[in-house]
Input
Amino acid sequence: MITCFMFGNYTTESLGKISADRTKEAVILINELGGKVKSMYALLGQQDLIFIVDFPDINHAIKASVALTNLIGVPFSTSPAVTVEEFDAMMEEL
Output
């Protein structure tokens, strides 16, 4: 499994469709595409949303990112992440 941070920004159209039901639909879609939502946050600043999601691999993450944008109208930028401990271990191998 890989952890991904999915950063979303509302569009004018998607702002008018904010609802708890849409959030539930997003979680269901992510689950159907092999992901597991760890947490979701609304933000202030450059990004409006962040979803922290585990996926089996990068292919599943890419599919979910595009499908989620199509479903709820919020464009997402998805970035794989590793823990600092994992990063430190990788750097020791260099």
User: Anything to note?
Assistant: The chain has a mean pLDDT of 95.
